[in-house]
Amino acid sequence: MKVSTGWLADYITLEGVAAEVLADKITAAGIEIDGVERRNKGITGIVVGYVKSKEKHPDADKLNVCIVDAGQDEDLQIVCGAKNVEAGQKVPVALVGAKLPGLDIKKAKLRGVLSQGMICSAKELGMNDKLLPKEQQEGILVLPEDTEIGRDIMKVLGLDDEILEFDLTPNRSDCLSMIGAAYEVSAILGRELSLPDPEAEIVENITKSAADSISVKIEDEAYCGHYAVRYISGVKPAVSPLWIQNRLMAAGVRPINNIVDITNYVMLEYGQPLHAFDADKIEGGNITVRLASPDEVLTTLDGQERKLEPQMLVIADGVKPVALAGVMGGLNSEVTSETVNLVLESAKFDGGTVRKTSRQLGLRSEASLRFEKEVDPRSVIPALNRAAALIAQYAGGNVYSGIVQAGTDTVEEKVLTLSLDKLNRYLGTELSLLEVKTLFARLHFPCGDGVQGHIEVKVPTRRGDISYDVDLIEEIARLYGYDNIPTTPIEGPTTPGALTKPQALRRELRRLLSHGGYQEVLGYSFIQPEQGKLFPALSEGGHAVSLAMPMSEDRSILRTSVLPQLLDIAQYNTNRRQSDLALFEIGNVFFTDEEQLTRQPRELSVLSLLLSGNRAVKQWNVATQPVDFFDLKGALETVFAHLGLTEAISYEGDSPQGYHPGRSASIYLNGNEGRVTIGTMGQIHPELQRKQDLEDTYAAEILLTPLYEAAQSRLQYQELPRFPGMERDIAVVVDSTVPAGELSALIRQHGGSLLQSVQVFDVYTGGKMETGKKSVAFSLTYRHAEHTLTDEEVGAVHELVLAALQQSFGAELRK
Amino acid sequence: MKQKLEALKIEALAKLQEVADPQALNDLRVKYLGKKGELTEVLRGMGGLSAEERPVIGQVVNDVRGAIEEIITAKQEAFQQQETQNRLQAEKVDVTLPGRSMAQGGIHPLTRVVQEIEDIFIGMGYRVAEGPEVETDYYNFEALNLPKNHPARDMQDSFYLTDDLLMRTQTSPVQIRTMQGMKGEAPVKIICPGKVFRRDDDDATHSFQFHQVEGLVIGRNIRMSDLKGTLQQFVQEMFGPHTGIRLRPSFFPFTEPSVEVDVSCFKCGGDGCRLCKQTGWLEILGAGMVHPKVLEMGGYDPAEFSGFAFGMGVERIAMLKYGIDDIRNFYNNDMSFVKQFKGV
User: Fold this and answer.
1) In a domain? residue B98
2) I want to staple A175 with a disulfide (CB 3.0 to 4.6 A). Which of A180, A248, A707, B329 is the partner?
3) How many domains does chain B have?
4) Do A485 and B151 touch (CB under 8 A)?
5) What confidence tens digit (pLDDT) does each residue in A243-281 have?
6) What percentage of chain B has pLDDT greater than the value 70?
7) Is the dihedral angle over the CA atoms A91, A92, A97, A101 positive or is it negative?
8) Pair B149, B265 in one domain
9) Is B27 found in the same domain as B165?
10) Where is the Aminoacyl-transfer RNA synthetases class-II family profile domain (chain B) (predicted)?
11) CA distance to partner chain A, nearest, from residue B235 (Å)
């Protein structure tokens, strides 16, 4: 809302308060002022002149030589190039020495003829092009005939004005009007208000009853609580008086003609949108407020044909819709230069209904903006009367007697009780009854004496946002000033602050991975539908969830895996010559079991890893080595070990989707409820790598929730070994398909209590090895807690181990 | 014999004096003192000496041996020292060459800021509460005093999945869920960090996905002055001990009164600089007293309980704190960006 300080001064004195100071005060009290705009864009020395004569320039076809009376000692000779300059006009004249935006006026000779100034266009005066009435957009600005010669143009055009841009929060729609703004400023400055009294102005200058010419009806008062019209005959559509035009332009509204301008003016003044119909285009002499019928069509004032939906509210005459209630009038009942008789409408339409209609049609107007936020029911009639009075005065209308209306403007009076004690307890203040009552008086909220500490406050209907005592507390607080509220510590019982177990473990994982060389990244929760199909769902039977109205196809489903984004991030960085990557992300993936989503999808927390490029950045003394499967697996093992889950995890080379089938595994957690899949890992499928322009890249994704649940702190002291262990190395030759993990497991199983650890230390294929065979070397450590082992003791167990390997896998001891 | 010994001594000492390497020294040692060495040879001949001569010659032999041994030891020492010198010379490294680096990753700057905020509030007795990214209309709007068709819903155009499900536009639904979960128990002291989503076209300062941390305190006597005290303490921990706050009235449907909280610019200390656009203040938080309707929907009687809530944008804080000028950096995950935020 653009609030002109010049206009505001009609209602409240702003003496001694500069616009900037006022802006700061209003901001501090709750409505942010986005800026202070001066209407004067830097002009001085421009006055009203009278063009006494116009002659053709002797040497230039397109120039005229005018003699102008500008109230100076002598008439001025001014050369003017505008097509529309004529003798007898009143025009703005920039005298010699005047300043215009970017131009200083000097005495000059134009093609040999002396020019003592310049006749100006509205644009040259720095006025906003977009707001100028059509007739002022070309040529010099022609002023009304009765404009006083020699008068400063700043006064004539209202340019000595400052505009405060009110950035209104949705609750303060009361300030979508000049009167509302005046109330606010009055409360802030503590100065008296003087508001217009339309009752005193209204001239019903025709005894004919309006009710004989028009009737109105509301079909359902849920959509429209009050609908009122006045009938006005004999209007003369024309250009509005300058002061109305000036104020409309100050408010950012383009003047059109006196009828439309007056309805807009009163809307700005009262916040009550009005609409004028050409009465002779209303068929049947009656108006009904009703919902649109199926298949009804209306061409609105902007020339667009609108297909109406049955839940849209329309104003209809006996035959057809003539307006979209509260949004925009219809072209079929528009006021034109031919219009003689008017039906002037003022109503309270339901905010939600107007909002829905406006949204559905993508059509917003100054009217819909105000109706959406609920207009003050008590403004319907005053605004109607005010507009009627202005039309009578400035558009030559005859106002018929009486208001024709349906519905009612009576509203239940809202009285709230505010406890002084609660107010002070709520804010932490010690305000006295008198201070609080003074602040309510400044707000123009009538209130009782509050002797018992309970203040009864009558809430004015213009403040529809106030419904609770805490709303009143806010009014007091913002006027009292938040800076004046003390700063205190919370009283009452103390509470221990802490992270939950999953939160603490998540941090632990971040710390572990980042210290281990992995960089955390953060992706979007939205991905492409195709990306959702690349990797297996870590949620059985679950499928992806789509956004109803995505902003782009690229981000149209909720991610079912973080891996596609890690690949994108890897590609992005590789393209920027950053190809040695170790990445991780901890985030959510989303699945639903439903075909038609009715419940929230499952959100699963996952840890995703990606490795690509070389193991370490290029260094002078380290050979660069590409990362491989076991770098990734090592990271996962470290994670599992950290959570105390080494024993509970197993890997199976079952070629999960999206990965290289020979270099990938599913990861299982063996818990109380049996074996569950918790993740996948491996080299990205070469085809996918190629599509992403990546060299060999490894990735893993694991579900975190089951890990958090299973994770255990195993921190428990174990006695240090008192007797030396005995190490035995063996190398066995087996079929190359035999997994090393199964060999280790068998060794553990047969090693009994003496076997303390088994480590694979070499795997060998090719060379002298028979095709289809491999050699796997293990280092076994045996130890007894109570004595030093003898060769015999160890030998006996070791034999068992070898025999088992031989029996189960046909393993031969490699010599 | 004595003469022979003297001659041997002279010859040996002369040869030893000239010896140039440890090998030659060892050869000479064997030649003179070894089992088959020349001195040993002489000793063998002592059997034929008379009892009177024997001690005299023995003394001479010992002198000769002593002299030879002495010079050998000295020579050995010299060679040892020489060798050490040579080794030290040979082992010299170029100390200006870079060292072998430890593997070092890092956490994302947004995580870093969230953790910092969490830690401050944990220290003040708060717990961390989290909730789903996909919310119901009820938790995201209605329970926060934003009924359907409420004009304030304009402020946050949302990503809907169905008529009733949407990507949360704020982490406030977690507050309602927590309140309902506490079943009227007090005090409630939580912060809720998380991802949120709004339909914004991405540019340098807007992102359709961003992060918030919200806080909620409910108790029997929670005052607006407590909100001021809490935020004052927070900003001093977060931005430095001289940071101040300023409250400006504002509007949020879920709080009443509602305020915007400005923090005195931690770069210029309030004098005005580019960061604070010469105002001396940075807009960082929204806050207010919990609206009675929200208390009710969370299961708390507004006649008995009151509370305050606050919220802040993590990206904005990170941008201000680290001087980042484009929000899209956080989600591009360029290594040259994300790797900047490690260390102290």
Assistant:
1) no
2) A180
3) 2
4) no
5) 999 999 999 999 999 999 999 999 999 999 999 999 999
6) 98
7) negative
8) yes
9) no
10) 111-320
11) 13
Q: Kindly report the average pLDDT of chain A as a whole number.
A: 92
Which residues of B participate in the annotated binding site? Answer: 256
Beta carbons of A776 and A705 less than 8 angstroms apart: no
Alpha-carbon Rg of chain B, whole angstroms? 44
Residues of A in contact with B342 (CB under 8 A): 514
Task: Check residue B215 and give its pLDDT.
Answer: 97
**Within this chain, do residues B133 and B71 fall inside the same structural domain, yes or no?**
no
Show the beta-strand stretches assigned E in A293-376: 297-299, 305-307, 313-316, 321-324, 328-329, 342-349
For the stretch B142-155, pLDDT in tens is: 999 988 777 667 55
ipTM of the shown complex = 0.87
How confident is the model over B69-81, as a mean pLDDT? 90
Distance from CA of A572 to the nearest CA of B (A): 7
**Helix-strand-coil split of chain B, %, nearest 5:** 45, 20, 35
The reply to whether B189 and B138 lie within a common domain is yes
For residues B230 and B324, state if they share a domain: yes
What range does the domain containing B17 cover?
Answer: 2-89
Examine the pLDDT at A229 and tell me if it is beyond 70. Answer: yes
B297 shares a domain with B160 = yes
Chain B positions touching A175 (Cβ under 8 A) are none
Q: Do A171 and B159 touch (CB under 8 A)?
A: no
Whether B99 is covered by a domain: the verdict is no
Taking alpha carbons only, the member of B337, B310, B196 closest to residue B247 is: B310
Is residue B81 located within the same domain as residue B127? no
Question: Which domain CATH number covers B297?
Answer: 3.30.930.10
- Is residue B71 located within the same domain as residue B151? no
Cβ–Cβ < 8 Å for A314, A307 = no
Quickly state the pLDDT bin for B156 (edges 50, 70, 90).
Answer: low
Write the residue in B134, B259, B336 that is nearest to A482 by C-beta.
Answer: B259
Whether B103 maps to a domain, the answer reads: no
Domain boundary among B89, B122, B139: B89
Q: At A713, is the pLDDT very low, low, confident or very high (cuts 50, 70, 90)? A: confident
